[in-house]
Each structure stands twice: as structure tokens, then as C-alpha cells.
Amino acid sequence: MRESNADVLQGTLDLLVLKALSLQPMHGWGISQRILQISEQTFSVGQGSLYPALYRLEKRSLVKSEWGTSENNREAKFYTLTTAGKRALGEETKSWRDFAKTMEIVLESKG
Fold first, then answer.
1. What's the rounded Cα separation, in Å, for the pair 60 and 75?
2. Of 75, 61, 82, whose CA–CA distance to 27 is shortest?
3. C-alpha torsion 76→36→97→60, nearest 10
């Protein structure tokens, strides 16, 4: 059971990262701040979780990265959503909504 919980959490983090990057290319710290913002301060993603997720997404060709200069004049790796990443975001969003609807039906059932 633990592995499936880990898969759900990993998939949720991947979806959050894809959603953050759908707005604009960002570096890691910017992604974590954007997730915090769009989740209304609910989801705080640490570097220990974020960078493995970015690596996973890059390996699956859902994001690509390139080095650039941050707003603080520091060298940083910027991540961009690929076409496949945009498609995956749409599919995962639909899947998540379907799952949430089904869970709502189950939780509201009387018996």
C-alpha cells in the first residue's frame, strides 16, 4: 500500500510542477514559490522533492531545461513545458478531476 501512496504523491507533485510551468518558464525556486502561491500557501515543495520531480519530468520529455540568468543576476537552470508536457498536463488534469468526482461520490454515499 505504501508504494501506491508514494505513486499518488509523486504524480500529484508532477502535476503541480507541470501546472506551474504552464504559466511561464521558471527556475526551481520560482516553481516552488509559484506552487505555494497557486495552492494558497497549502503546498510547500522542498528542494529534496522538487529537483527529483524536475529530473523525472525532463527524463520523460515533459519539460526541458536550459541555463540562464535569474532576476538576481545568478546563473540558474530554467525549465520549460514541452508540447508533450502540455498534453500530459491536460490528461493528468482530467484524470485528477475524474478521480476527485468519484471520491466525492464514494464519500457522500449513505451505505
1. 25
2. 75
3. 20
